Amino acid sequence: MATTICDGFDINIFGLIIPSLMKDWQLHPAQIGLLASWGMFGMIFGSLIFGPLADAIGKKHSIMVGTAMYVILTTACGFVHSFTVFAILRFFAGFALAGVFPLAGVIASEYSPQAIRSRVTVWATSGMAIGTVIAAIVGIALIGPYGWRSMFYVSALGIFLLLAQSFLPESIAYLKRKGHNKQIGHILHRIDPSFTPTEEDDYQLAKKDPGKGSVSNLFKDGFAKNTILFWLMFLSSYTFIYGVLIWLPKLMTMKGFSIRGGLFFTMTWNLGFILGIPLFGWLQDKFGGKRTLQVCWVILAVLISTLGFINNPYLLTVILFFTGACQHGCSGALGSYVTQSYPASFRGTGATWCYGLGRIGGTIGPMIGGFLVAKKLPVGYNMMFFAIFLIIGAILATFTTDFFKKKSAA
User: Fold this and answer.
1) Residue range 348-355: mean pLDDT, rounded
2) pLDDT at residue 231 in the model
């Protein structure tokens, strides 16, 4: 969970500084949208590389490399005064971060009991939601008195994550491929002290697991349909998330609230994870990922369409909380659904390619948001436009096959 906090902090940190950055550097909304998209471009390429890399050299070491790169490059953003250099740093920070978030979810899924695997995986990836809340709290405390650069200085604290990550167990599927049976036995003994490993033990993966990480496996043995649908679902989801969350503080100021008020409303949205993460994790264990995502995305589309037309601050706070609960619940359920839909041997590749190609939506969303803001489209219609992507996601989910749910029923 601590590892996935970086992703949430990164999502929110840029959105929080937009009003101050626009004023300080005299930037146009379209320029801000382009600047936000550079980080997403980096994530696309990072995901495509980190997935196969993790399956080749191990998920644990890939996570540690990605974290170190992200923290150093993000901290450096606080020291630059050039639009171009800032964009380049965001690109490579996004490249590194792309390998961290999905792999953390993969390891959580791999070491979770099947009966509660969805809940554990969703909770592990809920660090993204916690990171957004932390960013909002830090932003409220620091941006006013110390300026937007202080947000990037705080990112340097993430380097302590490396110490915690050194205690992560390596993927058993990876260790099996490398023939490290002794390490597998040690890990299993830590999980269940009653198990005593011996040198003669031979550990096997699931029967349907080919034991080899490869992108081509995503399109074999009945996985092709789900793979394509997952990519499109992530694309729709990330277009919505980054299109709305990046611009939410600015949209709130367009409704007449102060910059500080915009930060408060952003924090309220992200606090919704307290309800959304456990609720949708439980729903997914009970009803499966497919049905959970269908219902969740439709409800979220209704809430976001209503949100832009509410001006009462108290009612707006309540609706924002429940909107955030659905958004974070959907994000967690989607990530959990994907990680449980691939065998352990190429789960890292499957997950990171889904997140990576989905980040294309993360590049499109901020630019769409910037275009709508520049055209001075009313906030309500702005929100309704992004609700379209949620309906698309729900429709796509209808055509997926929930392998995990079918297995449980059997």
Assistant:
1) 80
2) 94
Per-residue pLDDT averaged across 175-201, rounded?
81
Residue with tokens 């600047």: 35
Q: Are 275 and 325 in contact (CB under 8 A)?
A: yes
Residue type, 162: L
- Nearest CA to 394 out of 279, 233, 227, 224 is that of 233
DSSP letter at 169 equals: P
**Tens-place pLDDT, residues 13-39:** 887 788 888 889 998 877 887 787 787
Q: Can you give the pLDDT at residue 325?
A: 92
58: left (phi over 0), alpha (psi -120 to 50) or beta: left
Q: Is residue 217 packed enough to be buried (19+ CB in 10 Å), middle (13-18) or exposed (0-12)?
A: buried
Evaluated on CA atoms 331, 333, 339, 342, the torsion sign reads: negative
The candidate with the shortest Cα–Cα distance to 139, out of 149, 126, 124, is 149
Q: How far apart are CA 366 and CA 32, in angstroms?
A: 8
What stretches of 272-339 show up as alpha helix (H) in DSSP? Answer: 273-287, 289-307, 313-339
**Spatial distance between the Cα atoms of 274 and 332, rounded to a whole number of angstroms:** 12
pLDDT digits (tens, 9 = 90+) for 92-109: 988 888 778 778 877 877
Report the chain's C-alpha Rg in angstroms.
21
Q: Could you give the CA distance from residue 69 to residue 166 in angstroms, rounded to a whole number?
A: 16
Determine contact, residues 172/184, Cβ cutoff 8 Å. yes
Place of tokens 């606080």: 78
**Contact assessment for residue 352 and residue 54, using Cβ atoms and an 8 Å cutoff:** yes
Nearest to 348 by CA among 82, 103, 81: 103
Which tokens belong to 310? 């509410």
Q: How many helices (DSSP H) and strands (DSSP E) are in the chain?
A: 20, 0
pLDDT of residue 409: 37
Give Cα separations from 81 to 74, 78, 86, 239, 292 (angstroms). Answer: 14, 9, 8, 29, 45
Give the pLDDT confidence of 222-276 residue by residue, as tens digits: 889 999 999 999 999 999 988 888 788 788 888 888 877 877 887 888 888 888 8
Predicted confidence (pLDDT) at residue 407 exceeds the cutoff of 50: no
For residue 266, give the 3-state DSSP assignment.
Answer: helix
For residues 248 and 15, the answer to whether their CB atoms sit within 8 Å is: yes
Q: How far is CA 321 from the centre of its chain?
A: 19
